[in-house]
Amino acid sequence: MANPNFIPLTGRIQNVRPFPDNCCSQMVTLRTENGPVQFVVTPETFVAGGRPLRPRMLATFFYDSTLPVPLIQPPQYTAIAAAPLLPGQTAALAFFNEELVAEDQSLQLNPGRGTAVFTANGQRYACHPGNNLLLVYYQTTTRSLPPQTTPDKIFVLC
């Protein structure tokens, strides 16, 4: 099986409605700069902070590019994770090694005293977060390769 490649799409949630014939899932329409995209949010989708997804909310949704998708318009993906955002925030989802460098070399984390680290269910994570799939909230990065950041919040998806 191919290694997952998590693709982020950021925009404003246009609407949230029940998924047809499945009351445990929702269809979220995200208005991106390239037009609308639909995401199926299932019970397995990680929603950071457990916040309800609402219209007009700024958010980043992540999907696995190795999974098949229907050839329809607007595009429709199954969301792996959703990260509601505050203005100025960015979210990243990737596997980070022991040195906290993303597997694709897209980001290096330098946690600081103010970095909050949680498990997927919102509990404090007391161990080193490396060698895990992480959903990371941050604001700025350096121009180095890979870019470095001191994250605001890290969710460890064990």
Structural write-up:
The chain has 158 residues and is mainly beta. It contains no helices and 12 strands. It has a 5-stranded mixed barrel with strand order 1-2-3-6-5. A 4-stranded mixed beta sheet has the order 7-10-12-9, with no helix packed on it. Strand 2 and strand 3 form a beta hairpin. The chain is globular and about 45 Å long. 25% of the residues are buried. The model has no long low-confidence stretch (mean pLDDT 95).
Percent of residues in helical segments?
A: under 10%
Radius of gyration: 16 Å
Distance between the termini: 20 Å
Tell me the major beta sheet: 5 strands, mixed, barrel
Quick rundown:
The chain is 0% helix and 49% strand. 25% of the residues are buried. β1 (6-19) and β2 (22-32) form a beta hairpin.
Question: Key terms for this structure?
Answer:
four-stranded mixed β-sheet, mainly beta, 158 residues, five-stranded mixed β-barrel
